[in-house]
Amino acid sequence: MIRRVMPTLRLMNQPFVSSIAALPEPAEPALWFIFNDMQLLVQTGGTLFTVPAFANQDTMGWTPQRVQYLGRLGNDHCLCADAPPDAPLPAGWRFLGLRRLFDHMAPDLFRVAVRAVQLAAWERNTQFCGRCGAPTHTKPTERAKICAACDLTTYPRISPAIIVAVTRDDTLLLARAHRHPPGFYSVLAGFVEPGETLEETVQREVKEEVGIEVDNIRYFGSQPWPFPDSLMLAFTATYAGGEITLEESEIADAGWYTAANLPLVPPPISIARTLINAFVAAHPS
Ligand SMILES: [Zn+2]
To answer: Which of 32, 58, 101, 178 is the most buried (most CB within 10 A)?
Structure first.
């Protein structure tokens, strides 16, 4: 039977140590991060969701596929895998996306889940070489796949993207993309292009999307964003010139907002919200 995670795991702030060690012995208990596509197997009920902890994968009643060793959370081995198609779930267990699980799992477990969802997808998507199509195998010395025929090495893909809070005096630049619902605004963001510095990406994205120049670009923080494989690199910057001119294919509206007059902004899961909260904290009304 699938057991619940030990209660202490929900409370303690434990370090996660990444590792590519061999899989633990079947008798050793491990925390399993098992996916159906991008959705994680969790136990419902109670105030927090947990992942299965069990010693022998056969106790699931089915065999997880594409198992990878992730590392240790405290003293617990962590593994990720895919569920086989149409695997029956014990009562009380279900698959949920990580956006739904934020703030509903212990932070320690959620952080491992963010790793696990990306590595499970990587394993799923790199069974064959992207250059010649031959089967790949797992490199024993690093987190990589190598092609048996042409030796091409494939690492887990991370897509860096900048996100930037641009201020002008006591106002913050917020924009609404066409894909967002009416009334929902956020700070600007965009993917880094090959060959760019992060500062160049910040300047290019702001210029492209709203037509203004920025300077005083300062690093703020970062956040893995596994939807599917972004790493958000957050910056602050200040207005340096130009008038708002929308890139109409992408941006529906943009403007300067005071801290006391913000529209609907992103939820707390995102570093976009952290940037906006920092602006509000720096501009008390
Ligand atoms: Zn190849």
So the answer is: 32
